Amino acid sequence: MAVPVDNYLRNQFMPHMWCPGCGHGIVLGAVLRAIGRLDLPKDEVCIVSGIGCASRAPGYLDFNTVHTTHGRALAFATGIKLARPDLHVIVLTGDGDASAIGGNHLIHAARRNMGITTVMFNNSIYGMTNGQYSPMTPKGRYASTAPYGNVERNFDMCELVKAAGGNYVARATTAHARQLSNYVEHAIQTQGFAFVEAVTQCPTYFGRRNKMGTPVDMIEWFRKNSVNAAAAAKLGPEELDGKIVVGEFYRGDAPEYTQVYEEVIKRAKEAAAR
Amino acid sequence: MAVPVDNYLRNQFMPHMWCPGCGHGIVLGAVLRAIGRLDLPKDEVCIVSGIGCASRAPGYLDFNTVHTTHGRALAFATGIKLARPDLHVIVLTGDGDASAIGGNHLIHAARRNMGITTVMFNNSIYGMTNGQYSPMTPKGRYASTAPYGNVERNFDMCELVKAAGGNYVARATTAHARQLSNYVEHAIQTQGFAFVEAVTQCPTYFGRRNKMGTPVDMIEWFRKNSVNAAAAAKLGPEELDGKIVVGEFYRGDAPEYTQVYEEVIKRAKEAAAR
Amino acid sequence: MRKEIRLSGYGGQGLILAGIILAEAAMRDGYEVVQSQSYGPEARGGASRAEVIISDEPIDYPKVTSPDVLLLMSDQACKRFAGSACEGGTVIVDSGLVTSVPETPGIVHEFPITDMAVEATGRSISANVVALGVLNTVAGLVSPESLKKAVSARVPRGTGEINLAALGAGIAASEAAGVG
Amino acid sequence: MRKEIRLSGYGGQGLILAGIILAEAAMRDGYEVVQSQSYGPEARGGASRAEVIISDEPIDYPKVTSPDVLLLMSDQACKRFAGSACEGGTVIVDSGLVTSVPETPGIVHEFPITDMAVEATGRSISANVVALGVLNTVAGLVSPESLKKAVSARVPRGTGEINLAALGAGIAASEAAGVG
Amino acid sequence: MTSAASPEVPVLVRHEWCKGCGICIAMCPKKVLEAAPDGKATVARPEDCIKCETCEIMCPDFAIRVVGGRSKGVAEGKGDVAGARA
Amino acid sequence: MTSAASPEVPVLVRHEWCKGCGICIAMCPKKVLEAAPDGKATVARPEDCIKCETCEIMCPDFAIRVVGGRSKGVAEGKGDVAGARA
Amino acid sequence: MPGRKGRDLRLLQGNECCAEAAILAGCTFFAGYPITPSTEIAEILSEKLPQVGGHFIQMEDEIASIAAVIGASLTGAKSMTATSGPGFSLKQENIGFASFTEIPCVIVNVQRTGPSTGLPTAPAQADLMQARWGTHGDHPIVALYPSTVPEVFDLTVKAFNISERLRVPVILLMDEVVGHMREKVEIPHVSDIEIINRPRPDVPPEKYLPYAAGPDGVPPMAPFGTGYRWHVTGLYHDETGFPTTAAPNADRQMKRLYAKIESAAEEITFTSEESLDDAEIVVVACGITARSARRGVRLARERGIKAGMLQLKTIWPFPYGIIGDIAGRVEKIIVAEMNMGQLIGEVERAACGKCEVVGYSRVDGEPIAPAEIVAKIEEV
Amino acid sequence: MPGRKGRDLRLLQGNECCAEAAILAGCTFFAGYPITPSTEIAEILSEKLPQVGGHFIQMEDEIASIAAVIGASLTGAKSMTATSGPGFSLKQENIGFASFTEIPCVIVNVQRTGPSTGLPTAPAQADLMQARWGTHGDHPIVALYPSTVPEVFDLTVKAFNISERLRVPVILLMDEVVGHMREKVEIPHVSDIEIINRPRPDVPPEKYLPYAAGPDGVPPMAPFGTGYRWHVTGLYHDETGFPTTAAPNADRQMKRLYAKIESAAEEITFTSEESLDDAEIVVVACGITARSARRGVRLARERGIKAGMLQLKTIWPFPYGIIGDIAGRVEKIIVAEMNMGQLIGEVERAACGKCEVVGYSRVDGEPIAPAEIVAKIEEV
Ligand SMILES: Cc1ncc(C[n+]2csc(CCOP(=O)(O)OP(=O)(O)O)c2C)c(N)n1
Ligand SMILES: Cc1ncc(C[n+]2csc(CCOP(=O)(O)OP(=O)(O)O)c2C)c(N)n1
Ligand code: SF4
Ligand code: SF4
Ligand code: SF4
Ligand code: SF4
Fold first, then answer.
1. Is residue H165 domain-resident?
2. Beta carbons of D62 and D85 less than 8 angstroms apart
3. Do G29 and G114 fall into the same domain?
4. Are A178 and E72 an interchain contact pair (Cβ–Cβ within 8 Å)?
């Protein structure tokens, strides 16, 4: 039985704190619909976040929720998952939270193949602190700390997580909310580390600084500038410049960490018994 | 004119602190020979390291040298390079230093394409702290904190650095000391971020725990279990299991960070003049 | 003399800039001045608040507690701050945006500030400067010359004329209303 | 009674294990005991040092300053520590490894410990336990029974017998030398 | 204030949660929604609604509920928003 | 103590730096080096040395210098050690 | 005096003993990152924890380690990490999180000579003040400090108990010397070890207010995944656990956090003394220095000096009262410590001019010897 | 009283003023990571530094930021970072490195209400002790604390000067309120600003001993890449800069580090006072609280109470002497601070029982108002 989204909200705290038109709500909706379709029992879901606008999500969700420190969500989540492998541990994180200060925890969670689903709300900016560039801000874009245009290149986070060892990697935008929700569903179903990059709009800072127009304009921009993975494979780097490639990029079947650790416990108990 | 290696050593501190047969000295020799072939002026070379056996290297080298904090060498090096773009900044780091605590700085230096050469001394173990597993310890290997065999997979660091945006990526072992030295030479010549993984033996901890025999046995093991990149391309994942793939994996030509920043300074000065 | 001024409305109305302009004008007049503004969740939620303290001696405590002059440019701002005005203080309300003014110890002056801005400059965005014109005329905080200079110095490049027109409209309207 | 014992040689001789065994034997005898060992660059450089303090009252200060009993199993160890023995203390030297014994306030007893180990067990690795046998016989620190039990408890699984043989060899040799 | 949903008005807008971003209005393939004077969404042409749930899925504020939509609030499907609008 | 290098003994071993790991001895394609009683390397068959510099490159302790080798201490080249030994 | 029968008498290293005690105290989760001189704790637990069905993980750094520990604790696991100076510095941000969100955990810091990399294998007692003040903002904390291996056992168990009972991170400070030395320890039978578990809610989930505390100031804590869905945040939060910026709440919250420690202060303050009763000169010390102080005081007594000593096993909360009392009846207090003067500040504060307070410091990586204590006692 | 001619009178936000002052003090390098309420400093410098040919970089986190700052300083650049609570906690390990290796740098901490995430936009004064003790091991540090925007200017310049002159990291503590408020500042002409640069070697490279200090305890520092090749390490090191584990060296090194600050203590201790001369009750405060204290004291005087106040602009080294003197001649000292009691510990220590010391704390994220000070003065 599928569960309606409202069931997962702590309605008493709504409306949420996100700005009008902020895409974070769309991404969160996609996550909740995925959980709903999978009909995960609320008590068995644990949502972990770091610090940032995106990371405020857990406060609104009726699960076991933790709003940790900036960048550390995956490290906290690792402890939770290892101590309680039966929980569905889902990390909701911003692009700054996950790729800047939290980059190391991300690649290590992927390497260990911890059974955690990570959804990175990528608005290409630090929203919470009012619009500085992030490691996901494309080169040339403006931000409050990039008044002359950003000189840094952004990560291809999906590539990075794949290279680090994740078992599932996908990307969609708020213009692909249904697809996005499906990806999150697949991510949750993955044994091992799963990563979904959700490209989303921050009309307040990224949008305004870069003259992207209204939230609707930004969503339209995503739609027009997205290429799906299959199509992208046929395009050259120049044609892909400035485009957002969406799709499911990788599915691996490496064993999940806590399951492997069960083996250790078995071996250790045998050794101790000897 | 090529410069002999001794010229670069602070002879008064020799013999160095590394154990008999430790491969770190072989890797360091390869680095020094590369510097010698390029005939870099000593005053223009800055060597930066973190903490660990490998990271003790700078103390023995007659350049501008900094032995920083564990994992942070690349962050210090970024400050040095940005403030003095004309210096040749070379980071010598261990696998723990670079891939565990320092993993984030590594991927960010690669993403920014900072003009830094990084040589990672990969002995698959934390040597300095007496043999715990590192993110580079292959699954199944033993270590003082992996008494039942390591349950974690190791990074493919070359893949990771490439995915993060580095401009040069190569790997060799101490059994390939000449090749290794050539790779370091190419790395130093690279504009932008360059990464060389030097697979090396720690006979004292990794070797002993894993019954790898003498240092000579370990070098032989590297030689026998290495496959070069071209050959590896023709092999399946099973055939490659447990093998070390050596070679130059990637050369990019993205612009180097400090050079791009010069542009910012130009634009800023124009803006200020207005 | 210590005058506390609070400007409040929603984000996008430019009230923080208005506060800075007022503070800068006071500085040009030789006063001591402190300007501050809302941060945090409040700022994110769409509300906006700027505060200015003008004094002829050093300002020790920099917080506004019971403002002598209050500008209210939204219903939310009214609800939250109308009561904070000091006894007999000046309360200026944008009558085009505010539907009802709650009880206040201050004396209320209603002006359709945003409408006036549209009328004077064709743009509602200059309502903040219109409000400054009104507020300063009514409360007599700084010299009109300094206010003009501060407007010119602080508004975005290329908008100087429009904003001086807005200021003028605010001054004129409040003089006309006989409250100046 | 407070006895300080220092065992010194190079890494791989098993002197730290020897120290632990001695300490455990003393514990079994009911003594208070503290065992410590070298760490850090010293340990990395190939040198090795274990220290034991045995006392019949609580041991407050846990550092060895002038050992009553000194075991020296390398030239380097001799150079560094021979002088540290207390006046008239027992200094046991592996005469097969040490080329010359520097001046020392202690009384030197030379035994070809490593050679004795090879002879008794076929393996130089059991030199540490031979040394314990010698040292305890000469200095009379703990009861032979406790020492035997401690050896059995602490040596690696499957090497108990070999090591007891080594211990016996050490005891026998020193008794034979008439220093027991 | 929540506008009542009925068979005739299948789209429910939670007024207190709506922030008036206009996304639902722009994304609805049938132009069912409109902005009220306060900028918030209202259901202007309920009879045109095809219950595609795009508005619900795209509302960042969980302010819309499509009654009787196929997925009961857990809308799924392949195509992206553009597809839904086409 | 450094054994003097001469045209006849082209390989110089810095005794104080050598830690006796045996790598040079094993890697030398011509078996020029041998372990002394203290485990450290000595040049046993200088006449067989082909100045390939493998020992120098492979010594982790910078204790070997091949005099008159082609690269003057900055040995380069393609093949790996195995190549040098082959 | 042979060991009594029936007791488990063992020769254990300080670090080893800490690991053993942790398991007996109920610890089932350890996350850490190796660092000298604390590493043995991790090494031993990597072997022993899975033997009891617990979990060990080596994280990518110290920040991640304390984070994982807090995460595991949320599920109800008694959790621990161990580190030394540099790693302790890195853990500070998340220690503040644990303190503020009241998640029990034990953090061992086997101190080495700092600052920075310092002398990694030499002892120092220079992280005392950091243990109290290392993270930003006011926050409650408890720190215990053993001087012998048996005390390591005792205080490790107490660290877990206090942490669970008060929902506060407890820091176990050790000296390198203590962590690395082997001593005789009598391991009590499991059933003889007092174990305290965190308070659990006695209301059904819908009535659960995760930060509503009883008179002892400690709110009951429901493990994640047991039907009580609650929210944890490092923002100021009210009884519900949800964030609020209300000033009165902030005041209330902070004061409760301090009060819960204060009201338990007596039961968590452990000291040990030597000849205090008639002492005219008292040496105050902790850890390894307390051992020398004890010996030094005995030697001084032999020379006819009325010396005494107070060993602090609880450093934080600092026993101002106890020291204030002593200050009121002695002539001099000597604070002996292996740092440039850290404890002495607190002792001076506590003494409040009632007696002279002098310091004896040693900062060369060597422990203070009994003779030095005697000399100092004779000098002052 | 219109502004005098010829002066550059500006309305600046505290953070903005800090950035402007840094550039005038010679800062050419900033590395940082955004965090409220300090971010404006980074934002402004991202615009202004390249205008003067300097470098700005936003790093991946705060650890990397302070590391990059130290790295840049090694090349001779005057370098700075800015942060707030959580970021300050993360920087601690490398602050210790800078302190121990004596690399000049300035660290701004615009304090918010902690602990943990706390109240990110509310003021608190609760990182005072952390500024002194946040990193492991003994280490020298200097911390300055402005209360007005003009003081921000003055103390930012002084922070650079002290850092360069003493080769010590200098921490500039700001209150959120001060960082975020705009006040009138008179910016002096560049030529009127006293600028101090780090001591440079006056010997040729082959004679350079990077850690050999003169009588002031401060060794000359050669920028990297200028022909002086030296070694920097966070291990204990001797005059050559190379590591040594020798105990006497460790002792010497640590004591020199403390002595260099102590011998300069007078010239780096800044205070400001109000009616201290005949005061019977003295309020001690810093930052924003000092402003209310000043007003409160004036109001109390109006009511006939002989009140006075001392503002500490230098927090570390703590002016024990000055406060000890005051304690000797007044009846009471009130320590007013926005925390649970941090400064008060140091004041009590300094007062040493010579007068009563009482605290007035506020911990709800709101500044202390003048009326509260008056009430407290009247109460005690
Ligand atoms: C240790 C630490 N450093 C910095 C901050 C300040 N900070 C809060 S959120 C944030 C970035 C938020 O960006 P992102 O993760 O992309 O999320 P968004 O707000 O854009 O959703 C930063 C830098 C902090 N809270 N803690
Ligand atoms: C912050 C911090 N954490 C941990 C340590 C302890 N430590 C020193 S070196 C090291 C790992 C060394 O391993 P690696 O980098 O692989 O170098 P190796 O010694 O093997 O050459 C660790 C964990 C430290 N010094 N600082
Ligand atoms: S600042 Fe940006 S990311 Fe944050 S809530 Fe507003 S729109 Fe969303
Ligand atoms: S411990 Fe290992 S890495 Fe370190 S010096 Fe010895 S062999 Fe080399
Ligand atoms: S369900 Fe579809 S048709 Fe109906 S209002 Fe929503 S978007 Fe429009
Ligand atoms: S999308 Fe949601 S918030 Fe936006 S206008 Fe529609 S109902 Fe309101």
1. yes
2. no
3. yes
4. no
Domain count, chain D: 1
Q: What is the pLDDT of residue F7?
A: 62
Specify the 3-state DSSP secondary structure of G318: coil
CA G107 to each of CA A50, A233, B132, G89, G137: distance values in angstroms, whole numbers, following the listed order: 22, 50, 20, 12, 19
Instruction: Give chain A's domains with CATH numbers.
Output: 6-273 (3.40.50.970)
Mean pLDDT, chain G, whole residue set = 97
Ligand found nearest the CA of E16? 6
Alpha carbon of residue H9 to chain centroid:
25
Neighbours of chain E (3+ CB pairs under 8 A): A
CATH number of the CATH domain containing H375: 3.40.50.920
Return the residue matching tokens 């990563």.
A195
- Residues of chain E short of pLDDT 70, as ranges, are 1-7, 70-86
Domain limits at H239? 205-266
Write the DSSP assignment of B91-119 as a string of letters: EEEEHIIIIIITHHHHHHHHHHT-SEEEE
User: What residues contact residue A14 under an 8 Å CB cut-off, 6+ apart?
Assistant: A60, E17, E61, E62
Is the pTM above the cut of 0.95? yes
Question: Quick one: average pLDDT of G245-267?
Answer: 97
Give the model's pLDDT for residue A6: 86
Q: Which ligand is nearest to the CA of A24?
A: 3
* Other C-beta atoms lying within 10 Å of the C-beta of residue D103: 7
CATH topology for the E11-73 domain: Alpha-Beta Plaits (3.30.70)
Contact G119 H346 (CB under 8 A): no
Q: Nearest residue CA, atom 6 of ligand 3?
A: A19
Q: Are residues A260 and B154, on separate chains, in Cβ contact within 8 Å? A: no
3-state secondary structure of G191: helix
Shortest-distance ligand to the CA of residue E10: 5
Is residue H139 included in any domain, yes or no?
A: yes
Domain boundaries, chain F: 11-73
List the CATH number of the domain containing D44. Answer: 3.40.920.10
3-state secondary structure of C128: helix
pLDDT tens digits along B158-174: 999 999 999 999 999 99
Task: Out of A132, A204, A214, give the residue to mutate to test ligand 3, the one with the largest number of ligand atoms within 8 Å of its CB.
Answer: A204
Chains with at least 3 CB pairs less than 8 angstroms from chain A:
B, C, E, G, H
Question: Mean pLDDT over residues C27-48, rounded?
Answer: 84
A89 in contact with ligand 3, CB cutoff 6 A:
no
| CA-closest candidate to residue A63, choices A44, A82, A84, A79 | A44
Query: Which of C10, C38, C39, C44 should one mutate to test binding to chain A, selecting the residue with the greatest count of A CBs within 10 A?
Result: C44
B142 C-alpha to center of ligand 1: Å?
39
Contact H11 C27 (CB under 8 A): yes
Strands (E), C15-163: 32-37, 47-55, 69-72, 90-94, 107-111
H92 shares contact with chain B (CB less than 8 Å): no
Range of the domain at D120: 2-176
From B101, B111, B264, residue closest to A153, measured CB to CB: B111
G371 and G238: one domain? no
Pocket test for ligand 4, best of B17, B26, B51, B53 (most atoms within 8 A of CB): B53
Whether H324 shows a pLDDT value over 90: the answer reads yes
* Of the residues H192, H215, H230, the one at which a domain ends: H192
CATH code: domain of residue G29: 3.40.50.970
Residue among B16, B7, B87, B19 nearest B47 (CA):
B87
What is the total count of domains within chain G?
3
Task: From chain H, pick out residues whose CB is under 8 angstroms from the CB of G342.
Answer: 138
Task: Pick the residue from chain A with its C-alpha nearest to H50.
Answer: A148
Peptide bond into G104 cis (omega under 30): no
State in Å: Cα C47 to ligand 6 middle.
Answer: 19
- Span D74-104, pLDDT tens digits: 999 999 999 999 999 999 999 999 999 999 9
